[in-house]
TrEMBL record:
The active site is at residues 99, 273. This is Queuine tRNA-ribosyltransferase catalytic subunit 1. Heterodimer of a catalytic subunit and an accessory subunit. Pfam families: TGT (PF01702).
Length: 427
């Protein structure tokens, strides 16, 4: 088969868990092969904050994410075309996935008006008007040259109920047809439709059924991880993977907490993205197996250990917790050093899951991960329920005596909640 006849995306399931819905796969794209399950770091403006492309390659990052709405505003289509696409513009030789701009309907709702034609935004940079239609979203993504593109979808806040949810789901289906019609580079780029339907199971099922009638090479699950309860979250993921085809990749948008990744791989998801690893780095936080280390805390002042003695990233090889405490949030280089480690942690977690699936030892991997991740606190009920739904039973939490039951929150749990509040307040 000549290179021009090879599809721009092929996907092969290489191993499946004999107990859960987890699977390992190989996705072959124009710019690189991608092993799944995979986490995609987010480079909204064509760059990851604090990390150079060469550093991402050193971490063996195979694919990253860019944002159509932001890249369409700045640098814009003409600059991207003249540069030969985003790969050349940013000096990144491997695969890129682009979001369509639909998420900004929620995140920039005060700047947007939505109707059947598209989304009318006011630029957050200069207050100018920008009409983002399905056709214009695809035009921008064709100029970007991403290996995988997302349709423009009608996105509502996850906790929305009532007729607006069905309206958004039906419009998303109509818009995918406009996106397919506008797509001018199908030989080089693959377009994913996005499953919507809020927290309504029949709507999710209807949406999946309708989107599967289209000739596409993969599917995204959208409209989650935006404030709904974790119990609703995992059930919607489970519903979607239960109906999506086995032979095509499944991408869950905007999910990046370690425990969520493990649960959703068990539920059958292949691809993830989130700003969390680099955002939390900017707050002086490092990701480890037991959660996060807030390196701003005084207890790390004399700690001469690396963040993680088992991590092989350049930060852990060269710097101590003490040094990182010294520069955390005070020096711009701390963002870079912690971002490198945090992305390395996410990629290593995904690699460990792939290897466990290939050995058919994924259930035991999950049990070991949860025991480590929740050393000081009970494993949340939603995690137990989600894993039980795919036949992975977790051991009971150690019994507590009356004195332990009366103790306040553990230091780790309180520290994590304080970090979450700080990041939400300033993001």
């Amino acid at each position: 088969m000549s290179p021009s006849k090879i599809p721009p995306l092929t996907y092969k399931v290489v191993a499946e868990c004999s107990v859960s819905k987890a699977r390992a796969g190989l996705m072959t794209l124009r710019h690189s092969e991608v092993n799944t399950p995979v986490f995609m770091p987010v480079g909204t403006q064509g760059t990851l904050k604090g990390i150079l492309p060469d550093q991402l390659i050193e971490l063996n990052c195979q694919i990253l994410l860019g944002n159509t709405y932001h890249l369409g505003l700045r640098p814009g289509i003409e600059t991207l075309k003249k540069a030969g696409g985003l790969h050349k513009f940013m000096g990144w030789p491997r695969a890129i996935l682009t979001d369509s701009g639909g998420f900004q309907m929620v995140s920039l709702l005060q700047l947007a008006e939505i109707d059947e034609h598209g989304v009318n935004f006011r630029s957050p940079f200069d207050n100018s008007q920008c009409m983002l239609t399905p056709e214009h979203s695809i035009q921008i993504q064709n100029a970007i040259g991403a290996d995988i593109m997302m349709q423009l979808d009608d996105v509502v806040k996850t906790t929305t109920i009532g007729p607006r949810v069905e309206e958004a789901m039906e419009r998303t289906i109509r818009w995918v047809d406009r996106c397919i019609e506008a797509h001018a580079r199908d030989d080089d780029q693959s377009l994913f439709p996005i499953v919507q339907g809020g927290l309504d199971v029949p709507l999710r099922q209807r949406c999946v059924s309708a989107l599967m009638e289209r000739q596409v090479r993969g599917f995204a699950v959208g409209g989650l991880s935006g404030g709904e309860s974790k119990h609703d979250f995992w059930r919607m993921v489970d519903v979607c993977t239960g109906y999506l085809p086995r032979d095509k990749p499944r991408y869950l948008m905007g999910v990046g907490f370690a425990a969520d990744l493990v649960v959703c791989v068990a539920l059958g998801i292949d691809m993830f993205d989130c700003v969390f690893p680099t955002r939390t780095a900017r707050f002086g936080c490092a990701l480890v197996g037991s959660g996060q280390l807030n390196l701003k805390q005084p207890k790390y002042k004399l700690d001469m250990e690396p963040i993680d003695k088992d991590c092989e990233c350049s930060t852990c090889k060269r710097y101590t917790r003490s040094y990182l405490h010294h520069i955390a949030t005070n020096e711009s280089v701390s963002c870079s050093l912690l971002s490198i480690h945090n992305v390395a942690y996410q990629l290593r977690l995904m690699r460990s899951m792939r290897e466990a699936i290939q050995r058919d030892e994924f259930p035991q991997f999950v049990r070991d991960f949860m025991a480590s991740h929740f050393q000081s606190d009970p494993i949340p009920a939603w995690i137990r329920e989600a894993l039980a739904a795919v036949n992975i039973q977790l051991p009971a939490d150690p019994e507590k005596n009356d004195e332990q039951e009366q103790k306040p929150k553990t230091e780790k749990r309180q520290e994590t909640e304080d970090l979450d509040k700080e990041q939400v307040a300033t993001s």
